[in-house]
Amino acid sequence: xxxxxxxxxxxxxxxxxxxxxxxxxxxxxxxxxxxxxxxxxxxxxxxxxxxxxxxxxxxxxxxxxxxxxxxxxxxxxxxxxxxxxxxxxxxxxxxxxxxxxxxxxxxxxxxxxxxxxxxxxxxxxxxxxxxxxxxxxxxxxxxxxxxxxxxxxxxxxxxxxxxxxxxxxxxxxxxxxxxxxxxxxxxxxxxxxxxxxxxxxxxxxxxxxxxxxxxxxxxxxxxxxxxxxxxxxxxxxxxxxxxxxxxxxxxxxxxxxxxxxxxxxxxxxxxxxx
Length: 274
Description:
With 274 residues, this protein is mainly beta. It has one helix and 19 strands. The chain is globular, with a radius of gyration of 20 Å.
């Protein structure tokens, strides 16, 4: 492979940007970048929904957070829509991405968008960081789209949602991804208290989880997380895993919520492809 030689000043500038934006990765595979560019990928974005699932005829809010928060550029929340403005799935080939909320950085985050769904189904969202002005050293690629579920009424149970997916680099064995997954418990007003438990897929490494108070245990192939004495709300896990390219790859294990007299689960696994 031909090696590219970089001028000393370029290497010094690149080093400064690496320190200033620690936690981000260089996107050396982006054909729009030159060999002299000190450009890093957009900040990690997380999209969350409230309520989860959404309910027809009731307020539904999508929120975007960034990590880190740049001091320049804009962040946009985009919704997949048909030509007549009807929200649709992220995978609908007849839809396009439409900006529904925007914030100039460093502004007030999370960036939110609230509307009242008219029909049940899947609605696609994605975050898009747009660099502009100052020392804005991000390439501004949109994040991967995720679907929100809208139901006809309150849907009791536990539901998983892919809230973020960031590529951390590739080699001959595959691509390492950083996934953010949110598990939502909805008792529809019953207020059940119980134990939420589930495992990561084989080969995954836990980065963080929230809220606090969870425990972890290791099995031969995965890490198991447990929250005890919990009820309605969101429970978030962030983890990394290397995957070979493919379609419909399971990226979550089986999770359940057990309470006195019953349980919710096991959840459907989230499928991912690239």
